[in-house]
Every structure is written in structure tokens, then in C-alpha cells.
Amino acid sequence: MQRPASPVPEEPDRTGTREAGGGTGRRESAPRLRGDLRAAIPDASAAVGVTAAVFALLWVRMETGTSSTAAVMPFMDDPRAYWMYLLSQAFGWSALLWAWGTVMLGLVLSGPRAVRLPPRRTLERWHRTTSLTTTALMFAHALMFAAELVRHDTRAAWAARLWSAFADSFVPGWYDSGTGQVAIPIGQGALYLALPLGLLFYVRHRIGARTWRRLHRFVLAVYVLSVWHTLLYGTNVWYGEWPRTVLWLLQIPVALLLVLRLARPARRAERLGAPGRPGGPRLPEWAVRALGRLTAAAVVAGVLAVAISGHDGGRTRPAGPPASAPHDHGSE
Ligand code: HEM
Questions:
Q1: How far apart are alpha carbons 15 and 213 in whole angstroms?
Q2: Quick one: where is this thing mainly located (predicted)?
Q3: What is the rounded distance in angstroms from the CA atom of residue 242 to the CA atom of residue 111?
Q4: Do 253 and 299 touch, CB atoms closer than 8 A?
Q5: Who is most buried in 1, 116, 223, 294, counting CB within 10 A?
Q6: Is 131 close to ligand 1, i.e. is its CB under 6 Å away?
């Protein structure tokens, strides 16, 4: 059944454009993928710089015997042999940092308006460029992992090495060793969701801005999957030590912004309102919105409890080498 038109006027599309045929008579130029890719160059360059810094840090940690990766997988204790693995990890961290930034920007844009922020158009542009950079960094992370698998595969046939590395890195369910059996599909899920949910923006005139907005909300799942994948699989956050605590702490501002965004959304049509009132949501819709707000509040409480209690899912660092590794390069 078609829902009657809401008497509360819809706010204009905040994506920097108006829907085709919006009838306002004023046309703003729609951001295009090519233009945004060009605009993302400074942002992507900064990301490459951050990746290089993380790579250097991981290298030094391995050289000085303080690397958690080497503690978890002693066969990897040689940065010269495993530099591709370190680079993959470094891209993973910059991808996660950029994902954090772009999610924060998205929540700021769709939540209550705060004074003392750069103009909305600037924030929107940053959101678009950081989101493009995030997807590229995620891909680079997985690609370097695949390259590492090719490099350490001892079989002679290149086709077999390439196929096996591609399938392990990019085909969900293919990787069959240790924690990676669960953690890798979670990471792939994040990457494969990020691509359409980010890029659909550039074809929203075809699918409709409303459909695009509805789909784009699910981008939060990309972030949740990315963090989950990292907590589950990242050897640098394997033990319950400060890097893992910092990772958890970084989730507090995201959760708080999510609560604010849900409590006071920028779009009037998304406000909770009273169910059944003229112009307000119907009861099922209201219940879903209320549940979303309660869940977000529970997430804030949960993340705070984890950070304060120290029960963050990290393992205790063993005195000697571990009995098993999260994934077994040694046997390849
Ligand atoms: C095709 C998808 C993906 C594959 C094949 C993949 C593969 C891996 C592997 C093998 C590790 C373990 C590295 C270690 O020993 O620490 C890892 C860790 C990690 N991944 Fe992914 N990943 C994927 C997607 C993602 C995504 C979407 C993100 C987030 C933006 C991400 C961020 C990270 C981070 C931050 C780490 C921790 C690295 C460390 O501990 O130093 N990954 N990933």
C-alpha cells in the first residue's frame, strides 16, 4: 500500500545536488566520479604517507624484537623477507583510519548541526574523497596480502600461484587456515559492500536520491565489519595490550556520534516523533527507529565497558612461542 504523502516537507537532498526534475529551477552541478577522484589526490597522498609511516613503524618493531606479529608467527621474524606482509598490514591500518574518518564525517553531516565546523559543502567533499580513498586502501591491503602469498608460494607454476593467492584473498570461503576462515570473509564483506555503497552515489540520478540514501545507510556495516575483522585477525592487536585498547577507544566517538545522529537527525523526516501523529511515522517505522536509538546507546555503553574493564577480547601474551599461528605461511 502506498503511504500518503507526508505533510512535513522533505528537506532538500544534502548530497550536493538536487534530484533530476526537482523543479526548483536552480541546478547545482552534480559531483562526478572523475572530479571526485581528482579531488581525492591530496587525500590519497596523505594516506600513502600514513601507510609509509605505519610500514616503517612495523619494520622497526620487527627489527627491535617488539613486533606482536613476530610474537604470534615467529617464522615471520624477518622484515626483509616479509615486507609485503608488513605493507599489507600498513595499508590495513590506513584503510581503517580513513574508514573511521569518513564515517565520522558522514555522521556529522547527517546528525545535528554543530556551529564552528567547516561549511557543509566542504564537509561533503571531504566525506566523498575520504570514502574513495578508503576503498582504494582496503583494496591495496588485500592486494598486498595476495602478493605476499604469491611470493612465498614455492610451486613453480605461476598460474597456480596466482590463482591460489587470488582465491585466498578475494574469494569468500576459499581461505581455509585458522582464524582467517572467519576473519577473511568478514574483511571481504567490508570491501565488497564498500564498493557499491560508495559508488552508487555517482549514479543516484538513475536510482533516485531516496533509494540511494536508504542504501547508503548500510555503509555503517562496512565500518563494523572492518573493525570486527581487525579485532579478530590483526596480529598487532592480537594481545590485550595498548594497541587493542586504543582501537576500542577509537570506537567511542563513532558510537557517540551515531547516538547523536539518531537522536537528532539533520533530516526532519527521520526524527523519531510520536507514532501515528499526522506527519509522524507509523508504529512499525517508529519501533524500528526507537530500536536503532536504543541499540546505538547500548553500543556506547558496551564500548565504554570494554575500554574501562579491559575485557577487550585480547589474548594473554605467552612466555614462549605460541602453539599455533592465525595463518600458516610456514607450510606454503
Ligand atoms: C579482501 C579483503 C581482506 C583481506 C584478504 C584481508 C586480509 C588480512 C590479513 C591476512 C590480515 C592479518 C594481518 C596480520 O597478521 O596482522 C589482516 C589484518 C588487518 N586487516 Fe584485513 N583483509 C581484508 C579486508 C580488510 C578491510 C576492509 C579492512 C579495513 C578497513 C582491513 C583492515 C585490516 C587491519 C587494520 C588489520 C590489522 C593488521 C595488523 O595487525 O597489523 N582488512 N587482513
A1: 9
A2: membrane
A3: 31
A4: no
A5: 223
A6: no
HSE, side-chain direction, 13 A CA sphere, residue 167: 10
Predicted pLDDT of residue 271:
73
Q: Which residue has a Cα nearest atom 28 of ligand 1?
A: 226
- Name the closest-CA residue to atom 25, ligand 1: 187
Cα of 64 vs centre of ligand 1, distance in Å, is 23
Chain-centroid distance of CA 256 in Å reads 17
**Residues contacting 154, CB < 8 A, separation 6+:** 332
Q: Which of 47, 198, 52, 79 is nearest to 127 (CA)?
A: 198
314 CB contacts (<8 Å, ≥6 apart)?
Answer: 237, 238, 239, 240, 241, 244
Q: Which three cell numbers stand for residue 181?
A: 576462515
pLDDT at position 12: 33
Q: What single letter denotes the amino acid at residue 49?
A: G
142 lines ligand 1 (CB under 6 A): yes
Q: Is the CB of 233 under 6 A from ligand 1?
A: yes
What is the Cα 214 distance to its own chain's centre?
A: 18
What global pTM score does this model have? 0.88
What's the rounded Cα separation, in Å, for the pair 293 and 240? Answer: 30
